Amino acid sequence: MHRWSFDDIPALYGRTAVVTGSSTGLGFAIADALARRGAEVVLACRDAGRAAAAADRIWAGSPGAVVRTLPLDLASLASVHTASHRLHDEYGHIDLLVNNAGGFRRRYSLTEDGFESTIGVNHLGPFAFTGLVLDLLQDTPGARVVTVASNGHLNGTIDPADLDPEAGPRYRFAKAYNRAKLANLLFAHELDRRLRAVGAPAISVAGHPGLARTEGGREMNRLVQIVLDPRVNPLMWKLSQSAEMGALGPLRAATDPLARGGDYYGPRGRTGHPERVTSSSLSHDAVVQRRLWEESERLTGVTYPTKRSRKNEASS
Question: Segment Disordered: which positions (predicted)?
Fold first, then answer.
């Protein structure tokens, strides 16, 4: 069986990729790989200083790379709108949007707009951002929206009418994270269905990193460092893989010429090279997908384009 790797990524010269949460870890590994293959990469990050440092690291390894930074805080709808306006000012189209930013919070907290932070940063912020920039992708041949999910979704449950069921002292970060990653896949599948319904050439796909050694959320840095420190927990270190290996699942979703809308790529187990895998049956529930979509539009105030794509209209 062929083991898909960085060498399988085709040349990406002339293509523009926006990668959220790309200053470190998994997002940086994704952005770096895309830049090394020739794509113009936009690092959409909350911290401008960390984004600039990440750009410097990419340039150091790929001196000819075209890398830009974009301030984006997915915990703030105001920031999401500002970032969308800037992309529209600077680009006529986008070929690839990788919704990578996410993570979870150990303690209960709210975003600037009053959403529980884990669902806000992992789902509602990316939902709003994707909807606001979708017109830059929707009519672009070969364009893709890639959602970075997690095996955690397999343990997730969700009630679209109540995305914050464990408010306050009842909060459990693992439940919140699994719920958010399930929301990611419900979104990815529903987005692809809607793109097909309007005849758009763009597709929605998803990928997961397996058990990778990444930060997993800024507030989790200390905990993650302890858990994955080989001196403290050598077994966990052996059972996990590097961010570069973890990035291969989302990268395959983003670049494999054979990928189809709705596909999901990642290790079949905790670690390994990415394969086409199947997400949970709940993530494919059309009723839950639609209910979550409608609730996400209501909460964020972002309504997705409903017109048929210009390409489809021209051929009618």
Answer: 259-284
